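Usage

Read records sequentially. Each one opens with the input sequence:
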Amino acid sequence: MSDADCVSQFSCAGYRPDLNFPKVMGVLNVTPDSFSDAGQFYSLDEALERALVMEADGAAIIDVGGESTRPGATPVSVDEELGRVIPVIEAIRKESLIPISIDTSKPEVMEAAIIAGANIINDVRALQAHGALDVVAQLQVPVCLMHMQGMPGTMQIQPKYHSVVDEIRFFFQQRMMACINAGILRENIIIDPGFGFGKTLKHNIKLLKNLSVFLDFDVPILVGVSRKSMLGMLLDAPIEKRLHGGIALAVLAVWQGASIIRTHDVKETFDAIHVCNAVKQSS
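and closes with the structure output:
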């Protein structure tokens, strides 16, 4: 597979979505303390219904998370996280063939989720947990490597960079090399600069303005900016009033080459990036 093909396709348990058109990843938090939906989809029936609605609205991937990674969040045990996500993954898989992403940093959860029917691993720690590289290499499924300075509990306490873009580029160089050396295929790697994870508003804006720099890695770029605090700061708006600002950021990200937009607001984001991509790809 050529480098160009690596950008437009990734293996998803035999399914290869065409990333020449940017895809929407719908967020499904099954936690009682999610920053965006306050446990609204914590029950199995509510989570399944939400997943099916997002698919109907245009989501190409459902991202299931059982541990909050909001600033100040406290970790949960492996057993607790498994108890939250595995029933939801199994329920979605019984009703739909849509690719499912498991949002976790724990190797045990990664493996169990893939066995239960998930297809992609989305790790805010970029496989830095002990054993994570080996598990993903054995599973041979796509993995998203996200950049985060620090840990969720403390990441927003005065984050500092000499050059946020250069330091994150170096981080991805190191993590991608670690993945490849562990036996993870390059075409299975996705990168996420980690907006809001150990970054100030100034860092986030700088990162978005220079997002196209990360195209040099020739792998898909995932961007998640939906409802985040950077929008609250820019707009002086609470979470429930950040939709339009989030759409603007998503469009800017797609214009600069993002392949996957992770969002809570699927239909609105799908429509916006569809229009953006049509203009971008016009001859």
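Summary fields computed downstream for this record:
- Residues 3-11+21-276 form a domain with the TIM Barrel fold (CATH 3.20.20.20).
- Residues 1-8 have pLDDT under 50 and may be disordered.
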